[in-house]
DNA sequence: ATGGTTGGGCGCCAA
């Protein structure tokens, strides 16, 4: 079982990349963030032609999430029960007996800003939502663009980045509360080269300098952690022509 | 190189 996450930064622009990547890697599940299109605009037909089913929760211009899978996705949830939010950032669904929670965590813009406050409130609601999901589903995988680098090892220049957005103590504390629920950042169960990241800023030649962060995460419940045999970043698509600023992150599991 | 690039959609906002 191969499960992957990719912030595509517009499905309109990246549809070709997604299809090419699916055909090359044949994951069982690929979750997408920032599709930036209405649900009905998601290219389910094109993905169907290469053998994938689709489920999307979109909106115009910003945000939007989708799940692409070989097997049908059932029991979708698109909102936290106690958090009224027009922004489409959540898509939880069950595939092959595994509960998949696809997240596009708010960026937060700047520490102390209104958007930062929204990010922290959103993360608090996420914690409550995931506590309930863990109660209901022992096979749980929570993945997506978390917009939080868990530790200094996930930042190209932690001294320079400091406590700025994506690394601030309150964000990392909110992420820590997800670990406290019993979720594991499964990428760190395996060996990786130093400087392995999942996002590189378009600006200032971020990718060429490997000036990146690891902010796209796969969190697993205990049973799924034990079943995980590999987790890695595929940075290849970041070097393709007109790329997303994020690379796909993958986790593989025993059946 | 402490800057600048991309996407959406048409003037800037978001990342």
* Number of helical stretches of at least 4 residues: 6
Query: What is the helix content?
Result: 25-40%
User: Averaging pLDDT over every residue, what do you get?
Assistant: 98
- Assembly annotation: single chain
What is the count of β-strands?
14
Principal-axis shape: globular
What is the spatial order of strands in the main beta sheet? 3-4-2-1-14-13
Which structural class do you get from the secondary structure elements? alpha+beta
Topology as a string of helices (H) and strands (E): EHEHEEEEEHEHHEEEEHEE
Low-confidence segments = none
Characterize the main sheet. 6 strands, mixed
State the separation between the terminal residues, measured CA to CA: 6 Å
- Give the strand content: 25-35%
The value of Rg in angstroms is 17 Å
Note down, in words, how this protein is organized.
- With 255 residues, this protein is α+β, with helices and mostly antiparallel strands.
- Helix content is 26%, strand content 26%.
- It has six helices and 14 strands.
- The strands form three sheets. The protein has a six-stranded mixed β-sheet with strand order 3-4-2-1-14-13. Strands 5-6-7-8-12-9 form a six-stranded mixed β-sheet. Strands 10-11 form a two-stranded antiparallel sheet.
- The model has no long low-confidence stretch (mean pLDDT 98).
- The structure holds one DNA strand of 15 nucleotides.
